[in-house]
Design brief:
8 helices, 8 strands, about 210 residues, TIM Barrel, alpha/beta, homodimer, 8-stranded parallel β-barrel
Amino acid sequence: MEKVQTDYSLYLCTDQGCIGERNFYQVVEHAIQGGCSVVQLREKKCSTREFLQTAKRIKAITKKYNIPLIINDRIDICLAADAEGVHLGLQDMPVAEARRLLGDKKIIGCSAHSLTEACQAKKEGADYLGVGAVFATDTKKDAVTTSLDTLKEICQKINLPVVAIGGVKEDNADLLRDTGIAGIAVISAIMADSEPRKAAERLKRILNSMDL
Amino acid sequence: MEKVQTDYSLYLCTDQGCIGERNFYQVVEHAIQGGCSVVQLREKKCSTREFLQTAKRIKAITKKYNIPLIINDRIDICLAADAEGVHLGLQDMPVAEARRLLGDKKIIGCSAHSLTEACQAKKEGADYLGVGAVFATDTKKDAVTTSLDTLKEICQKINLPVVAIGGVKEDNADLLRDTGIAGIAVISAIMADSEPRKAAERLKRILNSMDL
């Protein structure tokens, strides 16, 4: 899987906290069957050993569907699980150091809330940007928000794929039309839906109508 | 610094929780001046970015005194801070995977509570063992204990340096005489002492009397 070909259109961020009693791996697999094109695994509370075990199981699924697995924050887990890349926020390792450790073959994504942060991420070697929160979100209540004007400006001025994140759902995804994004990142819009495959399919149709 | 020459005699495990208002870096530096021969940095609560910043500052100190810095759990931090190695517990990455990621030049230490765990760690490629808790300890109240007989057996049967850990202090260190250990690991016996340099010096004298 070459990282230059990455399809960021429907980017799933996992959250084990919003699936209730359902099987996490099944929810993720159904989301992929519905059209998710990237999976980001985010585990902030478990041990390194558990994180690695989860990452390996998710990797077996993403490999089956030939889509990239991105690990939130942890370069050690990315390397050990042979994931395709990492996603880094402002509290994680700086992009430049991550690039030094991961080399050029791994995808490095970076969160950006402003044009300045986006520039910096590009300069340090990020492959894509996660920009937001574009809408209010329950999943991350302390999230810094980013206006749609800033989102557009980043898409225009920074030559990197931009994924809009934060509160994106079926009923607001269309507001992102013509912003220049490469895709949308969703958590609860898919993970919390009792039918994640159908939820992904509906989002995919909206994205198709936006030429994504 | 060749890992084969590592002096494990007085192994300091850091704990920012037991230094009160004092400067963490100064406490560590004084401990080294008092004779600590290895520093293990353990940070379970902070972000990756903070952990890395702390690791780099500690590395600058350990480098000045030419002693190895070992990072608890996190291989990503070890690589990014160019520490000499990692220490892995049962909730961390398995030793064999860590070895694959770190290569042969980094030190990998592993916690062991029994001969079986010690054998396994050796088989997977550990460079040294942390065995304990040999005494009751307040720093880690849920610690599994290891008897001095088991400690001795591990030292006899496993051809690796063994560091005894868990509640080791001035008034009980002598009980470890003739067990075959390569050193003692201490946290509060040095970190919580208002004069960490002197605390380290006193422990060093006890170790010297034990031919360590």
